[in-house]
Specification:
- The structure is a single chain.
- By secondary structure, the protein is an alpha/beta fold.
- It folds into two domains: about 20-80, DNA polymerase, domain 1 (Orthogonal Bundle), CATH 1.10.150; about 85-385, Aldolase class I (TIM Barrel), CATH 3.20.20.
- Helices cover about 30% and strands about 15% of the residues.
- It has eleven helices and twelve strands.
- It has helices at about 25-35, 40-55, 70-80, 155-170, 205-215, 240-245, 260-265, 275-285, 310-320, 345-355, 385-395; strands spanning about 5, 85-90, 100-105, 115-120, 125-130, 135, 150-155, 195, 230-235, 250-255, 295-300, 325-330.
- The strands form two sheets. A ten-stranded mixed β-sheet has the order 1-2-3-4-5-8-9-10-11-12, with helices on one face.
- Strand 8, helix 5 (about 205-215) and strand 9 (about 230-235) form a beta-alpha-beta unit.
- It is elongated, with a radius of gyration of 21 Å.
- It starts with a strand and ends with a helix.
- The structure holds S-adenosyl-L-homocysteine and iron/sulfur cluster (SF4).
- Iron/sulfur cluster (SF4) binds near residues 138, 139, 200 and 201.
């Protein structure tokens, strides 16, 4: 059985009225410091100090900042916060996958919102799957998140906050030992990769996602290589060149169908940006090479998109694009009419793809027992009822 803990209260403190320093650019940080009277000539040095404490050391409290005077620390904590998102639940799957349900405070007249963040430990790497929005406007018919309408975009501090929270909980800071039961991958970093594949369409929250990813990739802070950060989009074509040029992160495309008639149904955004336009944007994505390929995600839906003719067409469509293909076994959720393709069919499909030169493309489902697998994320506002959960478990077992 998965471990399931309801954390009461919040060990990191709930974000309150004070602005958080997490998620600000260096310029915004410097301006915030100027706003509390830090002299301009000090701003650069203070910004660098804070950046180090926030992103290298993972400080959750100004008191930890031992190279800052006591008076100034008090001043900082009077005006600013370093709060993490509130943890509503933390679940650990039988396979080591961890899922956090996180709550963010209301913004303006709104109400508190909840999102999920998932950590997937694998041989040699640890991938954090981060959410960009609460819900999603895009209603892809096979996606659980798509059944929840958009509540709001997440802010940079809330996107970066997911990364910091995961690192806190895992013990992923220099000089810390990993939390109980967590095995450090060979890279030494627990969160070695980030994928924007949680809830939401990241390119519909462009500015905030971009700001957050630039912080995750900043060499004086979290410092993840851009090759270890992947943004997945259902195909918001006009934003694809921009995210490439402005961040340089890796791209994943939720393709899922090779014909427009079918993709129009599975990924309704296709009616606006059909396959040919999407692939043209992929071909033009900056910096592609054999070492920097686009990942094409393809969810395996029984008798819908899983024929061998589809596999051959997939290979034909992608010819000439440095590509990886990721076949995702469909993860069922209560209320869906789709079924996952039979395993034998997935393997036959994968064979066609393999023979065209794409290596081991089947993505093993992770964390299914805690509903942490792709497309199963949905926030607590619509928490699964026991009956639904049982139906789902039966579906997975069958
Ligand atoms: N909105 C973005 C990123 C989040 S979805 C996008 O669509 O790309 C992350 C991946 O999970 C996408 O490829 C999505 O199509 C896939 N997915 C969604 N629902 C799924 C399900 N039930 N089973 C398997 N994969 C699913
Ligand atoms: Fe939104 Fe992606 Fe789900 Fe489509 S697959 S509904 S774009 S989260």
């Amino acid at each position: 059985m998965p471990e399931h803990s309801e954390l009461t209260g919040n060990r990191h403190g709930q974000a309150g009225e004070k602005p958080s320093l997490v998620g600000m650019t260096r310029e915004q940080l410097a301006r915030a410091l100027a706003g509390i009277g830090i002299p301009e000539r000090q701003a650069r040095m203070r910004t660098a100090q804070l950046w180090h404490w926030l992103y290298i050391r993972g400080a959750t409290d100004f008191a930890a900042m031992t190279n800052v005077s006591k008076e100034l620390r008090a001043e900082f904590s009077h005006h600013f916060s370093l709060d993490r998102p509130e943890i509503v639940t933390e679940q650990v799957s039988e396979d080591g996958t961890r899922k956090w349900l996180l709550r963010f405070p209301p913004r303006g007249a709104g109400r508190p919102v909840e999102v999920e963040t998932v950590y997937i430990p694998e041989e040699g790497r640890g991938t954090l799957c981060v959410s960009s929005q609460v819900g999603c406007t895009l209603s892809c018919t096979f996606c659980h998140t798509g059944t929840q309408k958009l509540v709001r975009n997440l802010l940079p501090e809330e996107i970066v906050g997911q990364v910091l929270l995961a690192r806190d909980r895992l013990g992923d800071y220099p000089g810390h030992s990993p939390a109980d039961g967590v095995v450090a991958p060979a890279t030494g970093r627990l969160v070695s990769n980030i994928v924007m594949m949680g809830m939401g369409e990241p390119l519909y929250n462009y500015d905030n996602v971009k700001a957050a990813l630039l912080i995750a990739a900043d060499g004086d802070g979290i410092g993840l290589s851009k090759r270890r950060i992947t943004l997945s989009t259902s195909g918001v074509v006009p934003m694809i060149p921009r995210i490439g040029a402005e961040t340089g992160v890796m791209l994943a495309i939720s393709l899922h169908a090779v014909r427009d008639e079918l993709r129009d149904v599975l990924v309704p955004l296709n009616r606006k940006y059909p396959i040919a336009e999407l692939l043209a944007a992929c071909r033009a994505y900056p910096g592609l090479s054999n070492a920097r390929r686009i990942t094409f995600e393809y969810v395996m839906l029984k008798d819908v998109n899983d024929s061998l003719a589809d596999a051959r067409e997939l290979v034909r469509l992608l010819a000439g694009i440095p590509a990886k293909i990721n076949l995702i076994p469909f993860n069922p959720w209560p209320g869906t009419d789709y079924e996952c393709s039979d395993w034998a069919q997935i393997e036959r499909f994968a064979d066609v793809v393999n023979r065209a030169g794409y290596a081991s493309p089947i993505r093993t489902p992770r964390g299914r027992d805690i509903l942490a697998a792709c497309g199963q994320l949905k926030s607590e506002t619509e928490r699964l009822r026991i009956r639904e959960r049982m139906a789902l478990e039966a579906m997975i077992a069958g």
